[in-house]
Design a protein that fits this description.
By secondary structure, the chain is mainly α. It contains three helices and no strands.
Length: 88
């Protein structure tokens, strides 16, 4: 069936894995300190990537890196919701 493909990845919006950007551990469908901990572990200690890589791309720029962790920390502790992009 026809589905919108807002991010142009060839996968319709209804079939994508992204539920909430920043939910790095994808365990509880919420953004909390365990997501920050898992993200730090991934970036600096060789930990596991998020089950849904799109959720790890917190700022929605198409890549996962330190800017996403910074955005996530700002969101958690600085109240900066504008940096957390919507899922498509």
């Amino acid at each position: 069936p026809d589905q919108a493909d807002s991010n142009g990845d060839g996968i319709g919006n209804a079939c994508g894995c992204c539920q909430q950007r920043g939910d790095f551990n994808d365990v509880d469908n919420a953004i909390n300190i365990s997501d920050v901990t898992a993200f730090v572990d991934y970036l600096f200690n060789g930990g596991y990537m998020a089950p849904c890589e799109e959720e790890a791309d917190v700022d929605g720029d198409g890549s996962v890196g330190i800017s996403d962790l910074t955005c996530l920390v700002d969101y958690m502790f600085g109240g900066a919701p504008e940096c957390v992009a919507d899922c498509y």
